[in-house]
Design brief:
Blueprint: H1 9-26, E1 35-39, E2 43-52, E3 55-65, E4 71-72, E5 75-76, H2 79-91, E6 96-101, E7 107-113, H3 118-130, E8 139-148, E9 156-164, H4 165-177, E10 181-187, H5 188-198, E11 207-213, E12 216-223, E13 226-234, H6 242-262, E14 270-274, H7 278-292, E15 295-298, E16 305-307, H8 321-328
Helix pairs in contact: 5-8, 6-7
Amino acid sequence: VKTSCKEGSEELWKNELKRKLQRAVKEGLLYSQRCPVYISSENISVVTAESKRDVLRVNDYFQLPLNEGTMLNGIIIDDYDLKQKLKIVYDKGITEAVLVVDSAKILAKSASIPKMREKEILQFVKDELSTVDSNSEDVVYDYSYIGDAETVKGASKIFCVGVERQFIDNYLEVFNEAGIAIVAIDYAINVLMSLVKQLAGFLDKSYAITQIDGQNVISALFINNEYVLTNRSRIFSTKGTLEFENEVIGVISQLKQFASSSQQDHPLTDIYFFGLDQEKEQKLFDRIRASLGIIANKLPKSKAIYAVNNNEESFDINDYAYCVGYFKRKWGR
């Protein structure tokens, strides 16, 4: 979610960031296009693209591998390695970026609200997320607009997000030292919700979109095409082994049980993976279908998303889901 600071110390923090960006613009450092950058536990993903009407034209895309242990749960552990890789991003001409970030440290929850003023919505978000975690300190809050609430006339659905300021500041510092200005920050699950709205085959279905990020399995559950929750699990077996597959199937089984118990009319029927090794994925898909009765696939391709030129590896939305999702996301304010 975009960085925002509303009052008090938050306003000072916002003004400091604004001054840094203005100085960079004056010195001619900023790239003309906001470029989404997503950092997983395994690599940095970057996409430059132009969105015209309903078509996304991808101009360039690349991934840079990170050393094991550089990132953990979205938290920077080895800032030296990350900084060195970000300098490669900078050398490719990217000096202005939108950071797409994911972590269990981020508080998030969807909610329905009546018509409110901006200040009232932010207070609502703060109150709503305090019930999720009341121990976090110095939290920055924001929200995005999902759509109209079908159950209450005149109400809206929003996605509430909160994160500790220190979490954001660590990213700002490392990017700044690499010469890249972060102009906005968005939450990975938020852009994922926008991505599925642009891809075919998701309407009137209950499904999960699951990312394999190193030893982490991150699943966003959608019931009747409405976001419900995010589930995070840690896998302890070696990636690519039969034991790893068994653990993943166990995670999906628990997700299926939750969906069945909470929504009897909309059982989980499909699961879409990204982040898997291509040579291993079909075997896992077949096992999930045989043992759980759930159709497993990769994220579907879209004719409205295409690369102008293929690099050493052809463009695959499954490698750049979050970056593409950022381009497709529309803010409600």
